[in-house]
Amino acid sequence: MTAIRLAARRPIFQCLNAPATRPQLRRLAQQSKPQREHLADLEHVSVHRAEAMRRAQLIRRRNWLALGAALSMIAPMILVRFWDLPPDAENENAQQEIEEDNKSRGVLDLITPRPTQTDSPRAATDEFQGKKVVIAPGDKVIAAPVDAEHPTASDVDTIELIETGTSYVPYFPKTITLPVPTGPEAVESQAEYQLLGLGIRKVSFLRVQVYVVGLYVRSSDIHILQNHLINTVNPTASALIPGEKEDLRKALLDPQRSTEIWDAILARKGVDGVDMAFRVVPTRGTDFNHLRDGWMRGIASRTDEVRKRQADLLRQQATENKQIALPKPVDEGEFGDESFGLAMKEFKGLFQGKGKAPKGSVLILTRGKDGELGAWYQPTINTNKGEKMGETTKLGSVRDERVSRLVWQLYLSGQNVSSEEARKNIVNGCIAITERPVGTVEGRVL
User: Fold this and answer.
1) Please, which pLDDT band fits residue 252 given cuts at 50, 70 and 90?
2) Which of 283, 312, 329, 420 sits at a 20 to 30 Å CA gap from 151?
3) Which UniProt keywords apply (predicted)?
4) What global pTM score does this model have?
């Protein structure tokens, strides 16, 4: 190839942005072996550094993603626990009225000082079911008509109240009136029930308040319950002394003994039975399905405990070759028959399709002398003058006594109860009625 032809192939001008020409393989082959090994080492170091950089980037990305996931779970918990809901228009108007009332009246404050108002975020502490809340003689909290000037706890149209410990549902009535069947024809008549103890049901580790529940006992049956509790400790006594009261308290708080005591009390029927009722008031808006599912889960866990206890007993009897006839804690197959399954369907159907249960509405579960469970509901109605209570309606009933017995045990006995605070207060109420002779505690429960 001549020099002229080679010169024609070479460009006279070369672009500065043109990529550098790659070395010819012949030139690499002509390099010495140490030089080739040195280039290979440099190439290996570059690949290793690139891999390390990529791995560090992925680790940083993983850490940021994990931090974001943790914050997305923790932030809602903090907001639910500590962030207050904005006040609605009614609360704002009530707050403005309170601020206007708190303005100084000059000399009038010295002559006729106003009563001290409690610090509460809701105006519900100033009224109860359309009545004003005042302090009566004897430091009793009562709900009296608005136009009453000097109300007392003994007035017919007043309601004595018990503080619940939460501002969402600040008060429970000491007595309630419920319809009960009387006579051979089961004609409904009104009967008075007295509060034995109450507490707040809380869920999750955040201790979120769900509802306030209180146990009421029919006033005419208090002496029956009193007699049963006293006979548990001392069958020959008419009242318990301090040492015996402490023994009864420990027994009612013990998982095993409390189950035995309340099983014996709830098994009584007829003249020895005790009419009782649970009053449930939600502290926040919920629905009947949520309440029903909670009771259904609790009943399922209690029936599983009974089956497990029965299986352990049968296993123990088999180990001893049935030489000793041990007493059975429950009848074999008590909750395994078809009738119990139908009764549970009836209980579930009581709350089916009932919709919402707003804050402040009242749900009452009753248990008659024959163990029949009844459900009553009193909604809240929004009016121009605020909230008021609607008419009480009956949701239905379940005749199988096993259903009501299991519902009662959810709050009174066992290792885990729906509200430990409610159980302790109910136990305190039970101790209070056993320290007086039988028949002398009616009207003096709390």
Assistant:
1) very high
2) 283
3) Membrane, Transmembrane, Transmembrane helix
4) 0.69
Residue 152 lies in a domain: no
Asked whether the beta carbons of 196 and 162 are under 8 A apart, the reply is: no
Tell me if 364 sits within 8 A of 193, measured CB to CB: no
User: Is residue 95 in some structural domain?
Assistant: no
- For residues 225 and 20, give the distance between their C-alpha atoms in angstroms, rounded to a whole number: 102
For the chain, what is the domain count?
1
DSSP-assigned beta bridge partners for residue 394: 376
46's torsion region: left (phi>0), alpha (psi -120 to 50) or beta? alpha
Q: Which of 178-192, 229-243, 258-272 shows the lowest per-residue confidence on average (mean pLDDT)? A: 178-192
3-state secondary structure the chain: CCHHHHHHHCCCCCCCCCCCCCCCHHHHHHCCHHHHHHHHHHHHHHHHHHHHHHHHHHHHHHHHHHHHHHHHHHHHHHHHHHCCCCCCHHHHHHHHHHHHHCCCCCHHHHHCCCCCCCCCCCHHHHEECCEEEEEECCCEEEEECCCCCCCCCCCCCCEEEEECCCCCCCEEECEEEEEEEECCCCEEEEEEEEEEEEEEEEECCCCEEEEEEEEEEEHHHHHHHHHHHHHHHCCCCCCCCHHHHHHHHHHHHCHHHHHHHHHHHHCCCHHHCCCEEEEEEECCCEEHHHHHHHHHHHHHHHHHHHHHHHHHHHHHHHHCCCCCCCCCCCCCCCCCCHHHHHHHHHHHHCCCCCCEECCCCEEEEEECCCCCEEEEEECEEEECCEEEECCCEEEEEECCHHHHHHHHHHHHCCCCCCCHHHHHHHHHHHHHHHCCCCCCCCCCCC
Residue 240 has pLDDT above 50, yes or no: yes
Q: Which residues contact 257 (CB under 8 A, 6 or more apart)?
A: 250, 251
User: With contact defined as beta carbons under 8 Å apart, do 118 and 133 qualify?
Assistant: no
* 206 located within any domain: yes
Mean pLDDT over all residues of the chain? Answer: 78
Q: Which domain holds residue 327?
A: 164-434
Pair 279, 172: CB distance under 8 Å: yes
pLDDT value at position 4? 59
177 is a domain residue: yes
| Residue-level pLDDT at 367 | 94
- Residue 120 is predicted with a pLDDT of 37
Distance, in Å, from the CA atom of 423 to the CA atom of 253, rounded to the nearest integer, reads 8
**What is the C-alpha to C-alpha distance for residues 227 and 360, in angstroms, rounded to an integer?**
35
Q: Is the pLDDT of residue 260 over 60?
A: yes
Residue 330 sits in a domain whose CATH number is 3.50.70.10
